[in-house]
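batch_manifest entry 22 of 60
target: Tripartite ATP-independent transporter DctM subunit
source organism: Pseudonocardia hierapolitana
requested by: lab member K.T.
priority: normal
notes from requester: please return tokens only, no post-processing; we will run our own comparison against the previous entry in this batch. if the run fails, retry once and flag.
--- input ---
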Amino acid sequence: MVADGLVVTLAVVLLLVLIALRTPIFVALAVAGVAGLLGLGGFTAVELVPLALVSQLQEYALVAAPLYILLGEALAVSGLGRDLFRAAHRWFNRVPGGLGASAVGASTVFGAMSGVSISSVAVIGRMAVPEMLERGYKPGFASGAVAASGALAMLIPPSLMFILYSSITGESVADLFAGGLLPGLVLSAMMIVYIVVRAKLAPENAPVDPDRFTWRERIVAIGRISPALLLILLVLGSIYTGIATPTEAAAVGALAAFGVTGAIYHKLGWSNLKRIFVSTAQVTAAVLAIVGAAFVFTQMLVLARVPDAFTGFIVGLDVPPTVIMIGIMIVLVLLGCLVDAASLLLVVTPILVPAIEELGYDPLWFGVLLVVNLEIAVITPPVGLNLYTMKSVVPELDLADIFRGIAPYVAIEGLLLAIMIAFPQLATWLPGLLS
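--- output ---
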């Protein structure tokens, strides 16, 4: 039989070739995984896949995924995104780059309800970017703020990425949600500070906003988004008070989202209902197809004992653990340029987590660190989904402008990674306080 190492290498090469040929990622993962299993154990190894696959997809934590997707899709048609942006604009309009800061603020709140980054980009971008362009904002400056801040939905709970990470590692979803909250808010603040400073130093990027709002108008705007704030409180509050599990909270949140969309915004006509359920089914099917295909590929890696070999190699290195962690982050950033976020998380987690634990790191902290890294994946070409979502909702934008506009935010995400490596308490303090 061919050496296991060679089989794994050939399977990885096959995966990269299929990705380069623009094969759907779930097909590429499944084909490469099955080919590797055949090389390692013949048809006997492949026969075990269906049972293991069903077992993986029956993971209780995964039930929350379609429910949070449903919640986000219901809110996407409600008009709540427009109210979020207008409310943020009334509070940020006096600062340089106020519309850009407003887009980040609106994305932060919407991300705390949706958990899916492309939904945030689509909902906020559809309103914020055209208004910024109309007021003279540079296309790259306008689109970069929305595409980057849309990724906050991956880090601020409820996050689909944390649900997937939990399904693999067994870490508590509630703890992961808590771990992502402070880094998410810090990242949002860093983005707003960048926008304000950049607009102050280079006013041609963002002309001064002539609008002026009274304190009464600002308070009224907060009142208009109170359903969103109550929905966040309902979902996260029920989790952290112990009233509901994350999955139960997702069901309650989805039901409440329908209530908000129907009773407050009156947007639950038949056409919108069809749009909500069709979009939810499509996104859920795509996510679960990737989960299943990635599991086949990781089964091949496990059969070849790749996680054990990697752990032994990492632990045996005569360098400080921090240096190893920085190296892992750099590799993940490069991989994120080639593979979508969900697939990357599902493939690398079973390999990296055992090594991380051997080095003495907290797997919960690493989960948050990994999701920050995946945020970079969704805003870096050529695979960055947020960039193409931005282009689809504002077609007049040039992709080159979007790519240029996103570059500073990649550096900001990198700075957050460095802060979290230096101060892991940023991710572990709140889970420890709530447990």
